[in-house]
Amino acid sequence: MKISSRITKALNDQIAMEAFASNYYLSMASWCEITGYEGAANFFYQHGDEERQHMLKVVHYLNGIGVQAVIPQVKQPPKTFNSLESICKTALGNEQAVTRSINKIVELAQKEKDHSTFVFLQWFVNEQIEEEKLFETILQKFVLIGRDKLAINEIDKALSSMATPSTE
Ligand code: FEO
Known about the structure:
The chain is mostly helical. 78% of the residues lie in helices and 0% in strands. The protein has one domain: Ferritin. The longest helix has 31 residues, at 5-35.
């Protein structure tokens, strides 16, 4: 099966974006761990693993149709963060950027009548709805529970219980 060079490039760029997202969450997890946010560290380590699975989905899709995927060099994400809340805001912003990127490839696939890529991307469209909702829910907790030490401790615990092993 053939896909266009534009779609191939867009999917390879998506691999790079998911790899960077994975590294970014890893850096967030590491900062949380060293700062004493055990639950959040747990959550972000697991989320980094999920992003790696997203990356692999695209790698396997391309390889499966006979187009060798490009494994990218990954940029270094920020090392330090201001607060748990700022991490979650950054995470939401990053997820919104991923959603825009996925939507662009969906539109390109529609334009080129590339049904295979269009169907493949439906999983990502749904996943991005979940991802944005997840971080919106977490950010709401800062509004509802608060930002003092006890509140942050509660949110840290809540994040730990949200860290479910990835099934994808
Ligand atoms: Fe794979 Fe959270 O975007």
